Structures are given as C-alpha cells and as structure tokens.
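Deviation from plan, reported transparently: adenosine monophosphate complex.
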Amino acid sequence: MDAIKEKIRDIPDFPKKGIVFKDITPLLNDPKLFHKVIDIFTERYRNENIDRVVGIESRGFIFGAVLAYKLECGFTIVRKTGKLPYRTIKKSYDLEYGSDHLEIHEDSIRPGQRVLIVDDLLATGGTCVAVTELIQQLQGKVVGLAFLIELAFLKGREKLKAHNIFSIVQY
Ligand code: AMP
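Because the crystal trials were delayed, the predicted structure below was used instead.
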C-alpha cells in the first residue's frame, strides 16, 4: 500500500483553493502498480457474480473498464450532462469542489442485475449517492462501491451506509 501511496501525488489548491487534489497519473504510469491495483480489485470481486461494472466519468472509466474485462462482465458508463447520445435518466450531485449532473442510458442496466460501482476516489460521497440512485431507479442491485482512494476524513461512508464500500488506500 505504501508503494501505491508513493505514486499518488498531492496537488494543493487544484482545481480550486483549499482542495488537495490526489493526482493518480504517476500511479497509472507505473506498469507494475497499475497491474497491482487491478489485481486487488479483481480478487475482491471475483466471486461476487457481478453482472455489470459501472464507471463514473472520467477516472472511474480507467479502473472500471479494465476490471469489467477481468471479471468478464459488461461495462456501463455514467457521464456528466449532455455527453450520452441515447435516452438517459439524470441526477444532480454535489462535489467537494462544486455541483453537477450525472446521466446513464436508461437501457444500460436490466432489473435485478448485480452492479459494482467504480471510481478513483471517494471524497464527500455525493457523486456516489447520485450514481447509486440512478442504478436503483433502473432496478439494478448495487453489490458494492470500489475506490482506489478514500478520503476518510470527509466521511463519505456516512452518506453511503446502506452499501458495501471497498477502498485500497485511505487518507
Ligand atoms: P465526492 O462526490 O465528493 O465523493 O467526489 C468524488 C469525485 O470527485 C470523484 O470522481 C473524484 O475523482 C473527484 N474528487 C473529489 N475530490 C477529489 C480530490 N481531492 N482529488 C481528486 N479527485 C477528487
């Protein structure tokens, strides 16, 4: 875990003053550690019968798509407003540094499918609350939420008490 943490770079005051941005690009540039992260996620969810990995724009796509490949299940994207071409359902959400809307294609999850949500980082939890609501609206079953990084001091877990949360490194 220390090796993973060493490749996560703190960028103070990005994208606005007071936020310490966790930059994962050094980790992604390291082939062994990128592999390691995917292996940890794969081991954790190998036996959970996941039907669908849902990746959150945009860094959730990086880990989510590779994990879906490893778990041999489908991959669904949740995007910011106006990016998805087909009919969507939509939810607003608050970020550590702002607020926005998220969308999912209305036919992307079938009722009863076992869904794993993946993102790079859990901060206040606002993003993930919106995504769990989108999936529940499509009658998917949220089996877990997986993050590379958890900013535990922001207590995102408290907003997501009903769900199983897994994170690889915590701050
Ligand atoms: P939240 O909804 O507060 O849990 O924010 C989570 C989303 O915002 C994730 O998609 C993260 O990529 C991004 N995010 C929030 N805070 C940070 C941070 N300090 N460093 C990097 N990304 C962040």
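Residues 48-170 form a domain with the Rossmann fold fold (CATH 3.40.50.2020). We consider this an acceptable substitute for the interim report.
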